[in-house]
Amino acid sequence: MSARSEAATDSLIAHHVLEFPGGYKRSVGPVVGRFLTGLRDRRIVGVRRPDGRVLVPPTEYDPETSEALGGDPSDFVEVGPAGVVTTWGWVAAPRAKHPLGHPFAWALIRLDGADTPMLHAVDAGSEDAMATGLRVRPRWRAETVGHISDIEAFQPEGGEPEVGEPEGGERGEHVAGDGEQVTIMAAPIRIDLDVGAGTAQSKFLRGLMAGKIRGQRCPVCTKVYLPPRGSCPTDGVPTEEEVELPDTGTVTTFCVVNIAFSELAPEVPYVCAQVLVDGADTALFGLVAGLPAADCRMGLRVRAVWQPPDERRPSTECIKWFEPTGEADAPYDAYKAYL
Amino acid sequence: MRDVAVVAFAQSNAATDAHRNEVEILMPVVTEAIDRSGIGRHDLGFVCSGSCDYLIGAPFSFVQALDAIGAWPPVRESHVEQDGAWALYEAWVRLQHGDVDSALVYGFGKTSMGDLSEVLTLQLDPYFVAPLWPDAVSLAALQARAYLEATGKGERDLAEVVARSRAAAMGNPHAVVHEARSADEMLREPTVVSPLRPSDCPPVTDGAAAVVLAAGDRARELCERPAWIRGIDHRIEAHALGCRDITRSESTRLAGERAGVGDAPVDVAELHAQFSHEELILRDALGLGERVDVNPSGGALAANPMMATGLIRIGEAASRVSDGGARRAVAHASSGPCLQHNLVCVLEGE
């Protein structure tokens, strides 16, 4: 997590990327798979409804009657590949994720023989060349894998035939040989977010950077929340009073982790614990080290072990772990209300 | 049916808010609505919220929002991954059971953290559509042109919708857009995705809204002039864009018919039109004539806190009834690409 902020009082903001690198692998089923198989073979296939109308792309169920479609191989019919634009919008400045890097049109295109239009890009060169009613035909990629982007774009009919650039990326992989139906496709998923920690949590994280544990007290019930979230979940009121706490506390409950499930996790076995920092009314999650895992126990008195100041980032990892203070264990009555 | 009314409404002073997180934005709004209702925080019979995890990029982000309501002792709570208007629908249904008399409804969204137009791509069909990354503005542009060409209307008609919205928003302290401009000025803007210009599209907004509902005599005790929900219905269309007639909104028409929009004259309508052409499609679908005051708040073109925008339409319409400005008001909320899913609510005074 990289964090930045404009001023000490502002929220910390971290850039988060949520994605499935290479795309989320979806099993596509027989109807969608039939369409994608067609694309791989440079054919566009629709499904015929009982009333004779042809849906392109095919849907698994009839959008009006919910009847299952495509149960018989003869229900699939080849359409186009040329068709007519039914509506469009001109993109003067394409986004990075758009299918073309230069200005193009999004369009709904009703292919010859189809009764419904499908969405795709039209590489028309200029907005003046676009019109509802324009006849277009697909431009296939040099390599087709069974993916909607096997059609690089549509282009006005009558232009020079072109084959697009070979391109890898998040389109899929060769999972079906010639003649076999496509069963899997890669669906690209990515969101970029600048996540703000908010006012209260930013104060807490800045405190950790300075080696301080800071909670907030509720003005109604006087409980001290750690980490603070800026509000009392019991009373539903803002918590603004800052309370600086010591870095000692009591293990209220814990577990011993015996399975290594992440490269980032410590060597097993290790102890995860709820630590009730002295003066706080909510327990903080942390690791416990400095004793054999089998010796950890409820009531164990612990102290925070901090990262060296120059290695701290605004994260709860500023506290590496808690280790025993050597004091006598806290009696059960001292922490039973916090379990 | 049990009579249920809006008895209190609050909304954030919409703006992009880099420093507060969703809960910090939401809490003062919830507190204001509860205080206005006169119901004790712990006396609310039911709580229901609307939000979207994709906006914040974290699963179950609505659970954290419970901090804003004070969920101890434990409360009866539910959540919809939709605009708060659908949370209000669920609360209205819940109140029909008869065992509780009040409900808190809220919606919230912090859209400035990501690129909303692209985040919304992830709600689309994952096989044929989303892999091409059509953003929300691009899909809206397809509907805008289809509508204009089907009706013979032009881009000036869109600009006039925006000019009216912006003029109305000048009187709304909760609006983000506070710049009145003429249709001529806006027609000189270059398009984003033609035929849509930047002013045809909603502003990025972080915000929240909260409504308190009460039933029967409880509503009359709490509120001098409750805004009674006389009809509410929502309808969804097929997900495949090609299977829909996007030149009109059949789902809005049907929901409006079921909610009884046409049964008596309408004074005010608050329509969840995120793009200028959507207002024209919705007016047609609901049969709203020139006499109806549409979006006196400025609508979603003036402030668009995603997941609260539809609930705000209900709150604004109810406020017009409660302040005596309207005898009968219509509120509309929408969800999904190109007006796929639509909710219509009719509100009246006594």
How are the SSEs placed, and which strands pair?
The complex is a heterodimer of chains A (339) and B (350).
Chain A: E1 3-4, E2 13-19, E3 24-27, H1 29-40, E4 44-48, E5 54-55, E6 76-79, E7 83-91, E8 104-111, E9 118-122, E10 135-140, E11 151-156, E12 184-187, E13 190-196, H2 199-209, E14 213-217, E15 224-225, E16 231-232, E17 237-238, E18 241-245, E19 248-257, E20 270-277, E21 284-288, E22 301-306, E23 319-324, H3 332-335
Antiparallel strand pairs in A: 1-2, 2-13, 3-12, 4-5, 4-6, 7-8, 7-10, 8-9, 10-11, 14-15, 14-18, 16-17, 19-20, 19-22, 20-21, 22-23
Chain B: E1 4-11, H1 22-37, E2 46-50, H2 53-56, H3 61-64, E3 77-80, H4 84-96, E4 102-110, H5 116-119, H6 136-151, H7 155-169, H8 183-187, E5 206-215, H9 216-222, E6 227-236, H10 250-259, E7 268-270, H11 276-286, E8 293-294, H12 309-322, E9 328-335, E10 341-348
Parallel strand pairs in B: 2-3, 2-4, 7-8, 7-9
Antiparallel strand pairs in B: 1-5, 1-6, 4-5, 6-10, 9-10
